[in-house]
Every structure is written in C-alpha cells, then in structure tokens.
Amino acid sequence: MTETHLSPAEVENLARTAHEGQTDKAGRPYAEHLAAVAEGVRARGGDPEQIAAAWLHDAVEDDALSAEWLAGAALTERTKAIVRAVTKRRGEEPEAYARRILDTPGALLVKEADLAHNADPARLAVLDGPTRKRLTEKYTRMRALLGL
Questions:
Q1: CA within 20 to 30 Å of 58's CA: 23, 26, 32, 130, which one?
Q2: Residue 54 exposure: Cα atoms within 13 Å on the Cβ side
Q3: What is the DSSP letter of 37?
C-alpha cells in the first residue's frame, strides 16, 4: 500500500492558512517569512521534503498547528523530523536546540534559510534599536552553535 503525502502546493496552502492573520516582528504578514524560508531552502539546493519543512518550520512552535497534527499529517517521516528538530521548545537551552538540528538529517539547511531571512538587514532595519540588537545577537549565536 502506498502512502500518500501532501503535494508541495498543499503544504504551502496549509502553512499559509495556519498562519493566517499572524504577523512578524515588523508587522508583515507571517506568510512572507515562510515563503522566503522555503525559497531559501530551494535556492540552497534543498529537496521537496526540506521545502515542505520550511513552509511548516514555525507552525508547531507558534501554535498554528499542534504536535498531534504533525504526528498524523500526510507528510514524510523525514519532513516531520525536520519540523520537530527546528521547533524550539519552551525553556530549551540554545545548545540543546542546535544539537537537535545538527543531529537531524536535512534540518540544518532549513534552519540556515530561516536564520538568513530573520537576519536580513532590511527586515531588521524596521525594528527598534534594542530589539534589532537582541535579535542580531541571538541569530549570530545560533549561527555559531550550528557552525554556519
């Protein structure tokens, strides 16, 4: 019996719907970030499973979709593992988070694209000074922990 999985367009639509009404720190529609991360994964040579994970990378963390939904979703086990790996857990130390990403095949590329978009100077420029400084330091530290 063959397992059916969501198509790339279905994953994109699902992610856009799940995050509907959400905005990023700059007040932009959150789907713009998801699209940028998915494109960043594609541009870096990512495969369809990694691109699907890029669309869903913040869904569980932001409570747009539940961990239970992810467990039963029509996605490959690798895509689910990548989403789980890049989902930050409350109170988790950055070192443990980075270790999980590095230990999960395919997750580093997704996190690299996420960090690249988050640290985009044009995105950071619209934030207030203290927020920009805090986020820049956070993203720089994570890049170092991941060896990027």
A1: 130
A2: 33
A3: H
Residue pointed to by tokens 């369809």:
48
**Quick check: 53 and 105 in contact, CB under 8 A?**
no
Does residue 117 register a pLDDT over 60?
A: yes
Mean predicted confidence (pLDDT) in 37-65: 95
Q: How confident is the model at residue 2 (pLDDT cuts 50, 70, 90)?
A: very low
Res. 27 pLDDT band, cuts 50 70 90: confident
CA distance 99 to 129: 30
Among 53, 47, 71, smallest CA distance to 14 is for 53
Amino acid at 27: G
Q: Which amino acid is at 20?
A: E
Q: Is the pLDDT of residue 124 over 90?
A: yes
CA distance 53 to 71: 13
Q: What is the mean pLDDT of residues 18-37?
A: 93
Write the CA distances from 65 to 23, 59, 77, integer angstroms: 16, 5, 17
For residue 25, give Cα distances in angstroms to 9, 22, 70, 114, 126. Answer: 26, 10, 25, 14, 9
